């Protein structure tokens, strides 16, 4: 009572609303409404039907209900549907009432596997922003050796994006409507239906599209190198310039 803090040295679990959690060792500050799980932290959110929506695991976790944040420290593992997110540490923004996730920041050795539009992402840091209801991914920002493998169709490989900084914006249907990159940019455009594989390198790029259509145009700037692979019969085509514009037919052909 002296400091309005509850301390639990051993295994503990809690539940409030659509959130449940467990760990070993806990402190709860009644004045600030901050709960800390000291080891083997697990925090989970369910949807309106009670089914698992998002589960967080880490070495330790701190839930600040008034601020609507969840800080995860050490060996972070997040399961969100069929999507797996991992990092050294993470900061999570929660909705009012902490019913669902509105943003996830992954810090250190960050990776995301699975998603509506992409197969995988890796970078030193990854930020994911969701719609206000937490249902749909709106934007992804990668910094530090970013790499993104987009989802292909009909067994074909998807496009690949590399760069020191990568910024992607998605429509509600998961189609990509904007993509930009800075620093050591590399975009791989896989061949399809007899078309050659293309690789473009530059200092920066920006691509735009429309919902339901994916990216339709792209521009590359500074030290641009365009390489079009040839078949068995010839040498690859190589073009260098200060600027390059490309029209993209659809998500699978260029």
Keywords:
mainly beta; elongated; 16 strands; 254 residues; six-stranded antiparallel β-barrel
Strand order of the largest sheet: 2-3-6-7-5-4
Instruction: Encode the helix/strand succession as letters.
Output: EEEEEEEEEEEEEEEE
Work out the radius of gyration: 22 Å
How would a textbook summarize the main sheet?
6 strands, antiparallel, barrel
Large-scale geometry: elongated
Low-pLDDT runs of 5+ residues are none
Which structural class do the helices and strands define?
mainly beta
Count of discrete alpha- or pi-helical segments spanning 4 or more residues: 0
In short:
By secondary structure, this protein is an all-beta fold.
Give an overview of the whole structure:
With 254 residues, the chain is an all-beta fold. It has strands at 5-16, 19-29, 34-37, 41-46, 52-58, 60-64, 69-80, 83-94, 101-113, 118-130, 137-150, 160-170, 176-189, 198-210, 214-228, 237-247. It has a 6-stranded antiparallel beta barrel with strand order 2-3-6-7-5-4. The radius of gyration is 22 Å and the shape is elongated. The model has no long low-confidence stretch (mean pLDDT 90).
Task: Outline the fold blueprint.
Layout: E1 5-16, E2 19-29, E3 34-37, E4 41-46, E5 52-58, E6 60-64, E7 69-80, E8 83-94, E9 101-113, E10 118-130, E11 137-150, E12 160-170, E13 176-189, E14 198-210, E15 214-228, E16 237-247
Antiparallel strand pairs: 1-2, 2-3, 2-4, 3-6, 4-5, 5-7, 6-7, 7-8, 8-9, 9-10, 10-11, 11-12, 12-13, 13-14, 14-15, 15-16
